[in-house]
Amino acid sequence: MNPRDLPIGVLGSGLGGLSVVRALRRILPFETFLYLGDTAQGSYGNKSAETIARLTLHAGTALARHQPKLLVIASGTASAFGLAALQAAAPCPVLGAIEPGAQAAAAAGGPVGIIGTAATIRSGAFEAAILRRSPGTILYPLACPLLADLAEEGWIDDPITDAICRRYLNQIPFEAHTVLLGCTAHATLLPSLTRVRPGTKWLDCGELTALAAEDMLRSGLGFRTASAQGQLRILLTEDSPRVRESGARFLGEALEAVEQVG
Amino acid sequence: MNPRDLPIGVLGSGLGGLSVVRALRRILPFETFLYLGDTAQGSYGNKSAETIARLTLHAGTALARHQPKLLVIASGTASAFGLAALQAAAPCPVLGAIEPGAQAAAAAGGPVGIIGTAATIRSGAFEAAILRRSPGTILYPLACPLLADLAEEGWIDDPITDAICRRYLNQIPFEAHTVLLGCTAHATLLPSLTRVRPGTKWLDCGELTALAAEDMLRSGLGFRTASAQGQLRILLTEDSPRVRESGARFLGEALEAVEQVG
């Protein structure tokens, strides 16, 4: 097979990564995608550094067996702790969700708020990547552990979600006109986020990662040669009606071709 | 050592189990306790049956090495999936958090609401245990995945927590005058729960499990012979300032004598 025709492997710590798949399919409709969502492990966002790194390496290695031309880590938390180890182990390039968001945040200039899971914020990964590009940028990192939970529960565009977003976001000084969504599950909460903090420029690490994947195909890995809509195959470590329902919200369509894997 | 002087091992899937330790220490002040909180794994509440059973057996086996006279599973979710396997493997009696709550619910009579994590409710463990004692009881089980997250985040006695409790509890018909709190983290939310559903009789599975442990000591295992306040040793698979802060809310005092274990 022409290496350009190999699939793109996408690794999610749960279901939030399906929002990255949604963006990837919109931007790269002719590519084929293989998504592995580690739904059996629950959220990575409250786990330890060592656990997240181990789980990311394990899931990434399983995906690599399908011979992808590119692996995308569609999770801020998994990228913060597991990118380096997976890059060292994988036989193909690995793109994480930290650098694309950090690049956009550095380019935005001015004070930047960063929201993410407890683990992602504790890692300091976004701050380090932004400051490497743009030293001296004023950053306001904030752990918002409930946001991913709300997104998974599906309380979207909801007054309770508004109140929780307001509680968190009000802790970031309003001089920060740019806020980086450091968790791929956050984008589904944009209706609430926009309401509680109007005029803010939101940088979605998931969307930016999908755009960075397109760049990598353009600058070397190559686009798939076929001109028919590419397929999406979904592997989940835990499948259930609840998982399907929650996943469909992130993907923007019903989950089909789901396989449960060990 | 006199077997009566051995410690009581308490297994929590995270920090919510410390609310059971709090009740145990109030009821049994002279006993010594060893708590193992599997904080590195995040919440068990969204994991698969197999994963929860495996983690519970693993943590329980680690606790059993300390030669407890009794093991208490201070988590509705871990009890729902892991009790039988741990009972088969442990060298001492193992008490889970399902039966004590179910016994009280069956005794209460009338329609009973049951709230718990997604996994606990999916298991049907409370329903089965209640119906075995009191066939025909009308039960309203309801998964409330955000409640344990709110309790861990520490938004206690809070208008947002009121709104979330109202959203969930309104799904249980008001003819259910009794609601079983099927997650040991729920008890800290009682200020909100009581406000949104006044006149309800709340059965706290954690408190009831502590009382059942006292019964087991009285009816055979024996009380510790010393008359000095017993010690509490806390083992956590992940320790951090955030974990300490959240844990102190469940325990009702600062976490001291914490050891991180692998």
Please tell me about this protein's structure.
The structure is a homodimer of 262-residue chains. With 262 residues, chain A is α/β, with parallel strands linked by helices. In chain A, 46% of the residues lie in helices and 16% in strands. Chain A has 11 helices and 10 strands. In chain A, the strands form 2 sheets. A 6-stranded parallel beta sheet of chain A has the order 4-3-1-2-9-10, with helices on both faces. In chain A, strands 6-5-7-8 form a 4-stranded parallel beta sheet. In chain A, helix 1 links the parallel strand 1 and strand 2. The longest helix of chain A is centred in the last third of the chain and has 17 residues. Chain A is globular. In chain A, 55% of the residues are buried.
Please sum up the structure shown.
Chain A has eleven helices and ten strands.
- State the low-pLDDT regions of chain A, or none: none
| Main sheet makeup of chain A | 6 strands, parallel
Structural class of chain A: alpha/beta
Run of helices and strands of chain A: EHEHEHEHEHHEHHEHEHEHE
Mean pLDDT of chain A: 94
Helix content of chain A: 40-55%
Query: Outline of chain A, from the CA principal axes?
Result: globular
Give the number of DSSP strands of chain A.
10
Largest interface: A-B, 29 and 29 residues
Oligomer: homodimer
What is the terminal-to-terminal distance of chain A? 28 Å
Arrangement of strands in the largest sheet of chain A: 4-3-1-2-9-10
Number of helices of chain A: 11
Strand content of chain A: 15-25%
